[in-house]
Amino acid sequence: MKCFLIITVAVCSCVAVVKSTHQSTLYDKCLYNQSVVSLDLPPMALRRECIELFSLDIKNNLSTYNITSEASLYIESLLRKVITDISPGHRGKRQANRWSRREVRTLTPREWRMFTGRLNRLKRQRLGNSNRYDAIANVHRGTVLDSAHGGPNFLGWHRVYLLVFEAATQFPTPFWDSTLDFHMVDPTQSVLWSSEFFGTGFGTVNDGPFGRWITPGGISLVRNIGNGGSLISRDGVRNVLSRTRHSQIVEPTNPLFGIEAYHNGPHVWVDGQLSSPMTAAQDPIFFLHHAFIDYIWEMFRTRQRRNGIVSALDYPRVQNSLHQPGRIMDGWPFIRGLRNIDGYSERFARISSYSTSPNCARCNNPTWPFPVLQCDMANRRCISAPVPPQDAAAFASATNRGVQVTRARSSVARIGPLPIGGKFLSVFSDPRTRGDTLPYGPLNA
Question: What is the distance between the alpha carbons of residues 242 and 253, in angstroms, rounded to a whole number?
Answer without folding.
Answer: 14
